[in-house]
Amino acid sequence: MAAVIPDQLHDHHHGPTGLMRWITTTNHKDIGTMYMIFSFVMFLAGGVMALTIRAELFQPGLQVVEPELFNQLTTLHGLVMVFGAIMPAFVGFANWMIPMMIGASDMAFARMNNWSFWLLPPAAILLIASFFVPGGATAAGWTLYPPLSIQMGMGMDMAIFAIHIMGISSIMGAINIVVTVLNMRAPGMTMMKMPLFCWTWLITAYLLIAVMPVLAGAVTMLLTDRHFGTSFFNAAGGGDPVLYQHIFWFFGHPEVYIMILPAFGIVSQIIPAFARKPLFGYASMVYATASIAILSFVVWAHHMFTTGMPLAGQLFFMYATLLIAVPTGVKVFNWVATMWRGSMTFETPMLWATGFIFVFTMGGFTGLICAIAPIDIQIHDTYYVVAHFHYVLVAGSLFSLYAGAYYWLPKWTGRMPDERIGKLHFWASLIFFNITFFPMHFLGLAGMPRRVPDYALQFADFNMLASIGAFGFGLSQLIFLWVVIKAARGGGEKAPARSWEGAEGLEWTVPSPAPHHTFEEAPVVK
Amino acid sequence: MSLAGRLAGSVVLFLAIPSAFAQSRYNFQEPVTSVAEQIYSLHTLMLIICLVIFVGVFGVMFWSIFKHRRSRGAVAANFHENTTVEVLWTIIPVFILVGMAWPATKTIIDMKDTSDPDMTIKVTGYQWKWGYDYLHGEGEGIAFVSNLATPRAQIQGQEEKGEHYLVEVDNPMVVPVGKKVRLLVTANDVIHSWWVPAFGVKQDAIPGFIRDTWFRAEQEGIYRGVCAELCGRDHAFMPIEVHVVSADEYSAWVEGLRLASVAQAEADDREWNQSDLIARGEQVYAATCVACHQAEGGGVPPAFPALDGSALVAGEHGPLVDIVLNGKTGTAMAAFAAQLSDVEVAAVLTYLRNSWGNNVGDMIAPEEVAAARGV
Ligand code: HEM
Ligand SMILES: [Cu+2]
Ligand SMILES: [Cu+2]
């Protein structure tokens, strides 16, 4: 299959200028940039919601928001962060980096690429605008369980529509990535020579194609139950509310891997670069990623141990879930072995990657604890679970995104990130993150449920600590904005083509910043 | 010291916190059933295994971070594969996992064994309260609804918060110590989840379906829990309180309730006039309706419509009796037929028609409600 012929064969840009340039662009770098800006804006929006939640939980009693609005905020915080911030950020990375890593001139379907990005802003507007319609945004939790989600007002329909749109965008993005990786590799770039980031994204893309339609189906069934008289999830009409949970989590569990596999990929690029030593166990990393992806389809009901499954169901899902720990462990061991006897330096990207391994693994351990069905029955729907998934999503996905952003910023902007400020950003984030989320383990163990605007008095001190941490964490993220703006405006040290001494890969063979078109002539990989 | 020192410091901190304080502030609540106890020790086992692996893996990582850095003159080796090591660190974890799964399996089998109960109680989740029906065993026939007892003023911060803020109810579940209690859990509107941590019981209450679970409390006392599944606005305000009492105290409680209900039935079995109905209706409203429709009848539109000034409230008796008895599907308005007696329905509706801005001036008689039920 031939690559898309770029509109212009010269390096500088001849197409429309100003806003139209961005609306009509088919360039993978422009689109990658737009994805990232979009996701950071959504990250800030979701962050404001989170801080409102933490402000309410600062003390027992109702002070800041009423319970209705509180539930809307927790719901939209979840939806915005998952579908608006984390997922598009990884797609942005894929757009920017995959063609450059495999020596392709662009993504395979450049026009579809434009469309898959431009679907996102309308979806985001639907979500945010739903706060202002009668009845407000959906308050059924980001999992949208019926029958509660059936009770919601039109904000729920807006959320369903937004999910449909974002799902279509994700599927188009995923198809693009699969085809690009499979068909557009430079001569000599065999599959097993591909940077691990491309591998993890390839596998993630398959997961997306497999499960986004399932989510679309689930929310469509909600929609018809709400408005068209069906009873998929209504017992009175012969349906079953738990059926929704099965469908949702059949999407939902692979979804969590959609948000972490590319993170593994980024970290697997960075650790070898700063250890100045090849990645340990490349092949086993690929197999581990594939095993995780496959297993992720048979563990969904570990989110449902308290629904009262039959014994055999509980045992099966417990065993399958425990099994996922094996390939995940292999990854951690491989990273540590990569560091072992390296010659390490700790520039900002490496700090984030190291922090990722350390804190993400703690989330892995609590995941293991949650996998033990009897224990999970105690901690399900408590703050313990909130702690668990923030350890893997914030300290996992988000930290890896920061690691990657600092690592590739020189390639994107032509300027090295400000090390001093970057390190400040890292340490502030790491410390405040733990102040925020570590006490939540204790809260959950001691019996505090999640999704509550108010709580019993014995939980007061840890909640106050968590709220303080949350504000610290939120404010620390603005430091990142500063680093990026400084580099984008041409401040700081000029970056050479190979911006980090130990960095390997085709992306480091092109100048920094990367010209608008790269690898119009495919490089040959020996 | 720079990076390594600081990171190592935080490791020490994380390791110290869980192990240094063993009180329930940092761990599960004190278990009072064998299941909760098994869960407690399973968790301790998991914690130990995880800590050992944690120390092992991160010991190596931080050693490496400390020793193998370029500033200390480390020169990079070039190895990047070792099949033996990779097979080992795939196989060994499998054995560790089997060691975890084995005791967990035994506990699950135990948790699922609801056979041979001494008594059976049906638990129904409502937005936002719990209903208890004693179906079998001593106290058979007892049925009541359990509401949050914490005054709204405490929640709004107009009053000092009490010791059991948000975990106290008006009518607690009462069970005898040492008896196997089987729970049939269901819900009326949306999914709730009945959770008492000290018993190790958390069971989703699913509308239209009945799930069962069990506990045998080994120690007298008061145990508190909360609804664990998001169920709408007042999800945080529908706690669970279980009093585990001696066999004698339990019998006394059952007898007391029996006498009270006989007295109430006798008192209700009379000719009602409007003002008595309004007085009785005010109590019913405060216990049953106020959570949604609010003290002044203003509701929280659009989810919970105002009753003050409502055309339906002031209109014909038939539809009004019907919506209370049978609810309105697709909304939070539940069917109250099973929960309220004829007198109570008649009373609350008479109260509604003659309160706030509503002054229809008539009454709805208990007989009308009885007739409507018959249909
Ligand atoms: C026995 C006590 C109650 C009485 C007498 C009562 C009475 C009524 C009446 C008369 C209406 C119709 C109002 C109108 O359309 O003008 C209504 C609607 C409604 N009630 Fe209640 N109610 C009670 C308890 C509750 C409770 C506890 C809830 C909350 C769970 C609730 C939620 C609703 C909702 C959501 C509607 C609106 C249904 C719709 O969309 O049309 N009610 N109620
Ligand atoms: Cu899962
Ligand atoms: Cu609830």
TrEMBL record, chain A:
Membrane topology qualifier: Multi-pass membrane protein
Leading EC class: translocase
One GO BP: respiratory electron transport chain
Alphabetically ordered keywords of this record: Cell membrane, Copper, Electron transport, Heme, Iron, Membrane, Metal-binding, Oxidoreductase, Respiratory chain, Translocase, Transmembrane, Transmembrane helix, Transport
Assigned GO CC terms: plasma membrane; respiratory chain complex IV
Location in the cell: Cell membrane; Membrane
Entry annotated with the keyword Transport: yes
Location of the Cytochrome oxidase subunit I profile domain: 22-526
Highest taxon of source: Bacteria
Catalytic activity entry: 4 Fe(II)-[cytochrome c] + O2 + 8 H(+)(in) = 4 Fe(III)-[cytochrome c] + 2 H2O + 4 H(+)(out)
EC numbers on record: 7.1.1.9
Gene Ontology molecular-function annotations: cytochrome-c oxidase activity; heme binding; metal ion binding; oxidoreductase activity
Membrane-spanning intervals of the chain: 35-55, 75-96, 117-139, 159-184, 196-223, 243-267, 279-303, 315-337, 349-375, 387-409, 421-442, 462-485
Name this polypeptide is given: Cytochrome c oxidase subunit 1
Source organism phylogeny: Bacteria, Pseudomonadati, Pseudomonadota, Betaproteobacteria, Rhodocyclales
Gene name tied to this protein: ctaD
Automatic annotation (TrEMBL), chain B:
GO biological process, any: ATP synthesis coupled electron transport
Top-rank lineage group of the source organism: Bacteria
The protein's Enzyme Commission number: 7.1.1.9
Record's catalysed reaction(s): 4 Fe(II)-[cytochrome c] + O2 + 8 H(+)(in) = 4 Fe(III)-[cytochrome c] + 2 H2O + 4 H(+)(out)
Topology within the bilayer: Multi-pass membrane protein
UniProt domain Cytochrome oxidase subunit II copper A binding: residue ranges: 116-256
Entry's Gene Ontology cellular component terms: plasma membrane
Annotated Cytochrome c domain residues: 276-356
An annotated Gene Ontology molecular function: copper ion binding
Compartment(s) of residence: Cell membrane; Membrane
Cofactor stoichiometry and binding remark: Binds a copper A center.
Broad class of where this protein is predominantly found: membrane
Coiled-coil residue windows: none
All residue ranges annotated as the Cytochrome oxidase subunit II transmembrane region profile domain in the record: 20-115
Ranges that cross the membrane: 46-66, 87-105
Cofactor dependence: Cu cation
Signal peptide residue numbers: 1-22
Keywords of this entry: Copper, Electron transport, Heme, Iron, Membrane, Metal-binding, Oxidoreductase, Respiratory chain, Signal, Translocase, Transmembrane, Transmembrane helix, Transport
Record-stated family: Belongs to the cytochrome c oxidase subunit 2 family.
Functional summary from the UniProt entry: Subunits I and II form the functional core of the enzyme complex. Electrons originating in cytochrome c are transferred via heme a and Cu(A) to the binuclear center formed by heme a3 and Cu(B).
Protein name, UniProt field: Cytochrome c oxidase subunit 2
Organism: Azoarcus taiwanensis
Gene this chain is encoded by: coxB
